[in-house]
């Protein structure tokens, strides 16, 4: 159950961080309403709190692993919200990152 909870938290954190960045991008780069940036800032704050709920207490480990989730999640976000068509190399790179996440977070430690 701990791994399932951890994976769910990574997904929620990715949604908050990537979504927050995307909202700010929309407001600043795409000249959309300013309140989207405010929503982005709130989503980024939520990300910070979600990340602290990870069962592993090592900040560096959690954030290092989250980097891989962010890479893969950003590509998924791009497909869903921006019509991105990832190249094969994008998908391979994201897969490598997710393997890294699994090793960092879930491999046995001595």
Structure description:
This protein has helices at residues 2-28, 35-51, 59-82, 88-106. Helix 1 (2-28) packs antiparallel against helix 2 and helix 3 runs antiparallel to helix 4. The two termini are 21 Å apart. By secondary structure, the chain is mainly α. The chain is flat, with a radius of gyration of 15 Å. Helix content is 79%, strand content 0%. The chain has one domain. It contains four helices and no strands. The longest helix is centred in the first third of the chain and has 27 residues, at 2-28.
Brief synopsis:
This protein is an all-alpha fold. It is built from 4 helices and no strands. Helix 1 (2-28) packs antiparallel against helix 2 and helix 3 (59-82) packs antiparallel against helix 4.
Features of the shown structure:
single chain; 110 residues; mainly alpha; EmrE-like; transmembrane; UPF0060; cell membrane
């Amino acid at each position: 159950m701990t791994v399932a909870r951890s994976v769910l938290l990574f997904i929620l954190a990715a949604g908050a961080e990537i979504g927050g960045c995307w909202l700010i991008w929309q407001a600043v780069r795409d000249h959309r309403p300013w309140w989207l940036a405010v929503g982005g800032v709130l989503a980024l704050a939520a990300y910070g709190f979600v990340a602290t709920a990870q069962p592993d207490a090592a900040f560096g480990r959690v954030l290092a692993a989250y980097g891989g989730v962010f890479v893969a999640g950003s590509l998924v976000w791009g497909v869903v919200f921006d019509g991105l068509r990832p190249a094969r190399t994008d998908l391979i790179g994201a897969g490598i990152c997710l393997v890294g996440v699994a090793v960092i977070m879930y491999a046995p430690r001595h």
